[in-house]
Amino acid sequence: MFRLRTSFRHAMLAATFFASLPEQSFSATLPALDLHLGSQSLAASLAELSRISHQDILFSETAMGSRTAPALNGKYTFDEALQRLTQNSGLIVSRDASSGAITVKSGGSFPRKVPRPAVEKASPVREEAMVVLGAGQSRQVQTLSRTELHKAAPGTSPLATLSELPGVNFQSSDPLGAYEWAQQITIRGFFTDQLGYTLDGIPLGNMQYRNNNGLAIGRALETENNGPVTLAQGTGGLGTASTSNLGGTIQFSSIDPTDHYGLDVSGTVGSSNTWRGFVRLNSGILPGGGKFYASYDYQYADKWKGWGQQKQQQLNFKYIQPLGDAVKATTYLDFDDRREDDYLDLSTSLIKKFGYNHDDISNNYKLAEQIARAYQAGETLPSPYTSPDDTYYRGGGVRQDMVGYEKFDYHLIPHLTGSTTVYGHYDRGPGTWSDPYDPTPANLGGSPLSVSTTEYRMQREGVLTSLAYQRWHHKIEAGFWFENNLFSQAAKLYPLQEGVTPSNFQRFYENPFAVQWQYTFRTHVYQFHLEDSWSITPKLRINAGFKSLVSNSSVATAQSSNPINASISASNGFLPQVGVLYRFNKHHEVFADFSRNMSAFTASASTGPFSTTQAGFAYIHNKLKPETTNTEELGYRFHNDSVQASLTGYYVDFENRLLASSLSSVIVGNQNVLENVGSVTSRGVEAAATWRFFRNWSLYGAWSYNDAHYNDNIVNSDGSILRIAGKQVVAAPRNIGNFKLAYDDGTIWGQFGGQYMSRRFYTYLNDSPLPGRVLFNLSAGYRFNRPGILKGLEAQVNVVNLFDKGYISSIGTTGFKNSDPGGTYQTLQTGAPRQVFFTLSKHFF
């Protein structure tokens, strides 16, 4: 923690120092860009300018239409380049006063000279396309605009909004998708911890609840500061900093400070006593050329069933400072404190017996003690409960995070650009549970219950660096990523007082009466990548490259009755990626790509090769192979002034799948251990289209079919065969469909959408199917754009689960099972009923 705080202190001191230097020491504008853009479609040139300058340029492929951009070769400021690309195009260029994002949109049929955005003070304008279907990309990629994300209720996880993209299935049991225990996403049959996640390029780990190498996006970035989110369903970029991206990557981004001083405030109220307050101050450009924003939010919500709360407070700070004409420094800091009460994990039998609203009994500590006391004495439990797992008194989680990075973007010599990012992350917090199996000792309180915790501490630091050389028809990029991660995990028991209801359950505990186990894990990650993007002709481009990945992990036992001290490595020196893009004309293009990815072993006591005994690890150490995937895609895209569409087919071969099982009774004290159990094949089709069928009106639709099945049976420890070959992968529906009807005239907006999902399975034998379902959502808003005291005010209403559908949301929250014919396995979460949220936001100055 000392090292992390020191790095943050140095970053802040450096930023403050540069900002305090005399004004003449720095240019008040961003560094000049060394551009080599050929004459091509305007959409492609804007996308390339956004990538090179690291500034958001929001536009619609359909609005750009058949417009072409002039060639740019030489040094230009960002404003000069944007003006040259869009001059005489009939397009309007404006800068969002709250986010700093540039919007390029259609402005009518008469061309006009576009004002330079750096000096334009326009009211926020929403771009026309909410989903960009990856035009110009040599792989399946979609981007959700910042505007689309912000049409969800504040506090909504951006993962939930991603569910409208083809092939994506996101589930959670709370209406905003923020409850981390039940937060799940599957893409093409790959689960949450088999995908890669980054924020502004820095790694967020595998995003699972018991995250050993990162954190959830909701704790790393306030939702009001979300920039565009990019999803690559099968093939992420070679430089993506992730050791778990078997099935795709999700790249989050934070907005930049604005050039103008301003204050943004918003407040949200809604169902389940939800309320959220947010404030963000933008400094505007300071005397030294830098600019920053600082923001804070506090959110509170009761659970929609049972008792308990979800509470979070968060602080974001971002500072951008040009250092002369060639270097730009960016500082980002995030502080977060989250405390949430759990929803009870259910089984199908419990749902049939008690209904979808069955939950814990946090309002009745006396009853919880009676259940625990009866179970421990072997007596009949109070009716209607037959097992201590039918309900609990309380459970939940506490997390505190500090995340930060210092990034330098630089233009070293003509044609050569690069960036270096140094980042750190500190996390601590327990997961809590009222344990009816381990009573509190009499001398410490004597309750038949105790508080069982799984406690986490994490300290990560790392560096990412890359260089790109662009000359003639080639762009060659090379990069390196290193991370050092020190992660500790412990299971402890804390006392409760008999007959005294705990006044504060979700907190940091001290002085346990028992430590069941405690381990420390250290992981070093090294990744190198090299890629060439070759524009062979104006119509044909090839991307080819590879990455090398090495992950070394070790575990040391601090305290345990089954100690384990061991190390393991996962490495592959050649993980190739090849993509081809061919444009037939301004409307039609096709792409094809191939990639090979590897996942490193998880270093944790909860899962992975270390979640066993010393003997169990010795048994598997030399047999385990890291999981790998080979992904092939073939796709077609079309766009004109009113329609953009994409159709993609894919084939994924998932090799060396890992599964925890009990291998042999001769291993004394053996717990579950990992083994490679064969492969999985995923094949499917994804289609998406947006149709602007009338002025200000659009219709979006997406459909995906995914056949993800196991290829091999499993031999159990007793020699029996678990016949899962040909069975559908757990948690992955075969069919997902989305639609959204939207209207937006700049003042009034509204959208009505729905999602269909076919049946899913939580058993490997597929003997307990969960039915499919259809859900609908509604949202609308009004923007006060006319001059006056109300200018900058916006009102918004969001209705989740419009028709109050009862359904099962997340599955596999406590894992998956071979078979569950009686429906007794508690691994299901039910979804929230209809919930309504109302938001008022105001931009000042």
Automatic annotation (TrEMBL):
<keyword id="KW-1134">Transmembrane beta strand</keyword>
<dbReference type="InterPro" id="IPR037066">
    <property type="entry name" value="Plug_dom_sf"/>
</dbReference>
<feature type="domain" description="Secretin/TonB short N-terminal">
    <location>
        <begin position="55"/>
        <end position="107"/>
    </location>
</feature>
<keyword id="KW-0406">Ion transport</keyword>
<comment type="similarity">
    <text>Belongs to the TonB-dependent receptor family.</text>
</comment>
<dbReference type="Pfam" id="PF07715">
    <property type="entry name" value="Plug"/>
</dbReference>
<keyword id="KW-0813">Transport</keyword>
<protein>
    <submittedName>
        <fullName>TonB-dependent receptor</fullName>
    </submittedName>
</protein>
<keyword id="KW-0812">Transmembrane</keyword>
<dbReference type="Pfam" id="PF00593">
    <property type="entry name" value="TonB_dep_Rec_b-barrel"/>
</dbReference>
<dbReference type="InterPro" id="IPR039426">
    <property type="entry name" value="TonB-dep_rcpt-like"/>
</dbReference>
<dbReference type="InterPro" id="IPR036942">
    <property type="entry name" value="Beta-barrel_TonB_sf"/>
</dbReference>
<keyword id="KW-0798">TonB box</keyword>
<dbReference type="InterPro" id="IPR011662">
    <property type="entry name" value="Secretin/TonB_short_N"/>
</dbReference>
<keyword id="KW-0408">Iron</keyword>
<keyword id="KW-0998">Cell outer membrane</keyword>
<keyword id="KW-0472">Membrane</keyword>
<keyword id="KW-0732">Signal</keyword>
<dbReference type="InterPro" id="IPR000531">
    <property type="entry name" value="Beta-barrel_TonB"/>
</dbReference>
<keyword id="KW-0410">Iron transport</keyword>
<dbReference type="InterPro" id="IPR012910">
    <property type="entry name" value="Plug_dom"/>
</dbReference>
<keyword id="KW-0675">Receptor</keyword>
